[in-house]
Structure formats: C-alpha cells, structure tokens
Amino acid sequence: MKGLLSFKHGVHPPENKDITAGIASRRFPFPKEIILPLSQHIGVPARALVKPGDRVERGDVIAEAAGFVSSAVHASAAGTVKSIELWPHPNGSMVPSIRITVDPNSTQMRRPRIVPRWEDVKAEDLSKEIGRAGIVGLGGAAFPSHVKLTPPKDQPIDILLMNGCECEPYLTSDHRTMLEQPENVYEGIRIALKALGITRAVIGIEANKPDAIEIMQKMAPDDLDITIQPLQVKYPQGAEKMLIKAVTGREVPSGALPSAIGALVQNVATAANVATAFETGQPLIERIITITGRGIRKPGNWVIPFGTKLRDVIEHCGGLTDDAAEIVFGGPMMGQGQANLDVPILKATGGILVLSKDECKRQDIMPCIRCGKCLDACPVFLNPQLMGALAKAERYEELESEANLKDCMLCGCCSFVCPSNIPLSQLFAMSRTQMRRLATS
Amino acid sequence: MNVKITASPHVRSADSTVKIMWSVVISLIPVMAASIYFFGPSAILVLLASSAGCLLTERLFGSRPGSLADGSAIITGLLLGLTLPPGFPLWMAFLGGGFGMAFGKIIYGGLGQNIFNPALVGRAFLQAAFPVAITTWPAKSQNWWTLQGDNFALPFMSPVVDTATSATPLGNMKFGDDPVITPVLDLFLGTTGGSLGETSALLILIGGLYLAWRGHLNWHIPLSIFVSTFVVSGLFFALGISQFPPLFMLFSGGMMLGAFYMATDMVTSPITNRGCWLFGFGIGFLVVVIRIWGGLPEGVMYAILLMNALVPFINRATQPRLFGTSGKKKKEAGS
Lengths: 441, 335
Description:
Number of strands of chain B: 0
Structural class of chain B: mainly alpha
Helix content of chain A: 25-40%
Oligomer: heterodimer
Number of strands of chain A: 17
C-alpha cells in the first residue's frame, strides 16, 4: 500500500466493498411506473417535449437541454406519459418530473436512433453528439459531459484523467463497469481524447481493485498513450482535485477549474456510456447501480432504468432487514439520506446504500477539544475546527474571507474523524445555503 | 421501520472524545502504580484527594449534564496529584483540585474552552498558596505502609509531625551545598525523590508512547520539547553557563510528565503540527531558562502555562496552507 501515489491527508473509512464487488451486474426488471425529473444534472432543468397521453418508446427524447449547461432526458422505458408534475427528488425538494406508465406488453426494444460513427465526426462536433445522448458525469456531480468536453479555449487541456478510484466505501458500480465493459471504457477514452484534441490519458484506480487494474492493463490498446495508475486506497481519492494531485502532482488553484492546469477528469462509467451511445445509439437511460449495505437483504449490482422508484428497487432486492436504519443515495461519505420511498433513481445515482443500525451508530455531540484531527484529515488543508466555530456563531463573512469556506468540497472527512462527533460538513453545507439566502434577500 | 435521515457522512470513525479521555487515564496506570510502589499509601491518598477535589467541583459547577463520565475531570485530578509531593496534606490537594477545575476550566465554559491546563493551574495555585508544603520532600520511610510526611495535617494548622526531608535531584543540584548530579539511570528508572509522578521517566515514556500509538497524543509536542531542552541546555552546558548536563535536564523533575501529559493536553495546545513544534520549542527553552536562572528549582509548570497563553497566537500564525494556493493570504481567487 505504501509507496503508491496519493494526495496528502484524507481518511480511511471501512471499505465494505466486498459485499457486492464480486457480484456481476444483471438487468433490473422494468417497473410499472417511471419518474424522470427534468433536473437530474447540474445546470438549467431540461424542457419537456411530451405531454400527458403521449406514447413514448424506450430511448425517445422526452426533454431537451434548455441551455448550454443543461442535459436532455430520454425515456428509459416504453409507455404512456401520465403527467408532468412535481415529484419528490432525492435531494429533498419537489421537482417537475415526467411520469410514465410503463407498457407491460412492450418488448422494451429501444427505438433505433441514427448516430454517426464517432471516427467520422469532427472533433468539435463530438460534444454535441454526446449532449444529444443526455450524458452527464456519472461520478456523482452529474455535470453535463458535453460542457465538460468543451473547455475554455484559453485553457488548453494536455491530459485526460480517467477516474476509476471509486473511493466512496461500499460502492462497486465503477468497479463492475471496468470489469464488465473494459472495451467500452477504452472506446470512450478514444472519443474524449479526440474531442479534446490530445493524446495522453491516465486511468487512476485505487489499489483495492486489483482485478480491475489487471483487466484494464490487459485490454489497453497499443496505439493509445495510456497509463493505468494504481493509487493508494484513501478517501477522497476520487475527488477531481485529489486525483489530479495524485497522478500529476499539480494542484488545481483555489477557486479554479481543473482546466486551469490542463487536466480534465472523467469517470470511467461516463466514458463507457459515451461509447455505448455511439456504438448502439442508446442514450443515457440506465446504468450500473450498486444496491448494498447490511440493511438490504439481497445486495448486488444492477443495470437499472432511470426513474425506477426506490420502493421498487428495495422490493426487488429482497426488502429491508429488521435492523435497517438509514437509506442513502450514493456512498456513505457524501450520499444523501432519503425520507421518501417514491424518489426515483437518477443519472447520478451510483449506489443505494441501506445501512443497518450498527453501521451508522451515532454518538452524542461533545464539545470540541481542539484535537486537530480535522485539520489532519482535510484534503484541501482547511481549518475545519475554526470553520465549525465560525459557522456555529453564524459569522458567515469571516467564514468566507478568513476560513475559505468556498474551497470546502463537503467531502465529510472532518465529520468522519471528529471524536466529538461535531457535524462539521453539515454545518458548512448549511452555512453555504444560509449565505446564499442572505445574498439574495 | 424507523428510518433515520441524517446529513452525510453517514459513517463515523470509532474514535470518540470519551474514549480518548479514558485511554489517557489507562495510560497513567503504570505511573500511578510506580508512585504507589515508591511512596506507599500516601501516594494513593494524595491522588484520591486531588481527584475528589476535581470531580466534586465538576459535579457542582460543570455546565454539561453527565460531564463526569467523559473522564476529563478525573484526568485533571490524577495529573495534579502526580505533580504533588507524597507527604502533601490531603486538604491542600483537595483544594488544589477544586481550584484548578473551577478557575482553570469551568470558569471558561468547561471542556474544550479553557486556555490553561487545569491541572497546572491547580498546581500553580498550590505553589503560590503553600510554598513550603509543596516543596517538602519527605525522606523515604523504612516501611512501605507508613505514611510519608504529614498527609493528615488539619487545614491551616502547622504540621503535627516533624518529618525528615530529603532533596530532589533538581533542588539538590540548584540549592545543595555540594551539588551532586544524580545519575541519569536513577532518574530514568525513578529511584529518586520527587513528586508522585515525577520519578520514573521510563513509565511515563511507556504511557506516552501508548497514547501516541493510539493516535491520542500529538507526538510532535513531546519530541519538540525534548529536542529544544536538549539543545538549549546542551548549549549552555557547553558554554559553561550552566552546571546541568542536558540528559539530566531531560530526565529530572516534571519534564517527562509535563511533556507527555500536560503540554499535550489537546485543548490547550496548538491545533496545527507546525504550531506544536513552535509550542514545544518554547516550552523547552523556558524550562531551561527557569531552571538555570529562575528562583525555583523546577520550571516545567510555568513554561507550559506561559506557552498555553500563547497558543491562540501560535494557531493564528500557523494556519495550514490552503490547497491550490502558495500559502500567502488568499485574495478572492478565481472568479
């Protein structure tokens, strides 16, 4: 483990990936109803193109990008549009969503979509094609991929970093993607390299996935300038800044994007889906999702159509165990706790985690004893102790000017290590919301 | 099913403040056992009296309910007890514990809020209030079970028993008619006179290393104290200014206990590692200066208290370098 590349600080939560790492992904049955929110991505919500009563086939575009930073939405199953209404979103709000009653008699064949061979598309038009397929970053942030692949002209990219770290404990969907679709990942890398007009790529994979490292090495095409880089197992190795630091030694300047230092990070699952979109014409309508945790009876990796409700997923996976305590979309470090079983699965949902009581025990909050463990954990070298004190005192101006709240990634390392169980990252997230509210009022 | 909805992260490390506190107590067991071995029942009584003072004060005036269970009050009591001479009157030890707790900690707002190490505040109070009693080192009695000195002296009465006294290595060195350097090995193993916990450097080292291994003690602090004490005292010794050899400096008096248990108090030490180095260097330097030129034979207590006062400034001066910056004060970056 020692001697592998990594970044400074970070934490080592229990990995718990063995629950599902060895389970090959299978197709999830089509549910009776799917719910597709118009915002499943960062940016402007998509604009609906269908109306209640419309018949849609699987793969049809049902909402178009409503701006440059926006993303199209496609029907993940054939059926009839029931309504467009506000529906609970995994982020806790109510979001306009397209409700589709799935046709039980449909074979769910995709409607053919005509796509050009990517080799024949001009580099600058590739991102447009990727945008048409509704592809967003599948690492969690769901930033529209076509925007990412068109970096500012004054910031030339010289290296493509493929993110195969999957540093969130429990999750294994990227791991399965690399094992099951290595050729798609490589095809996606070729497309991204062409779109960016560069030749150099590095795949960063945490060392706890030796089989993925091996298969990616074995399948690496000779004509590509590509390195498979095993990385130390440490959270948050998969954060863009941390991955770039580990692989290239460069630090993304505070407040800037990775393109400022010539790097672009893309998730391996995103690349695989880009390749699928060009190869078969299938837009982004489903993905591998890890259903895991000790609170679910039958954990596994599933290819689930977007819009499937949490309720259906839990039911199909054997239901909850008696000691299930918390349901999370995403991993345990940054994932979102869910209060409603009707929330749909989104493009950015890499995993559904059902934690048992033992896994998410919480102890009483104690006073801060200034042990400094949060400073030793923070991957961007903030002072969470000071920030926590300022946040509690609602001294937002200092929080920003003195303590650099803006640079916080909300990765949760400080909260994880705090022996006094102070909910630091929660305080920081709340402070940001509060500051936004103050700024607009 | 009862679903919890909490903010991320949904998992936490197994570490807890209460665990840290109690593991400090556990790590003190060898030192306490040695003090009982060397000084007999007197050691038990003094430790009990100082702890009782702390616990009672925390119980009466502590703001948080259940704060006794977190172990922080008992640590203060035990550490204070370990800095006292074995024959120390129990009522004074009790009073010192109460004072240290009340004016070293609770008055600031309780756990995590204090500036000075409460055990040392208690000891500083006792040093000022009872300068004779706190520097009376009874000669070791013949039998293990006899009391040392005058533990049961009544409040504000002169001692009822005349005890034979002996000098501590540091006192001997500084004020003795014929200064003798106690062999370092004796200091290391603890066969010399001194306060309860000041005698065996070896056992404190074991306790300290245990804590450092558990991650409950910032090793930068003791290391920087030792380095600076050794270097500064070595320099003065080499120049002929002081008669204390550096190794003697390291292993005598309250150095070990202070470096491992007092200076590393998380609440009253700097929060950054760079700050801890500064803090430790300051303590080492002050100890040497006080020992050589001060009016007291021992300087560890005042050195740590003085540096405690500087911690907020050290913290401010040693803020970590923000990722993606050169470390200088960041102007509105990016946008």
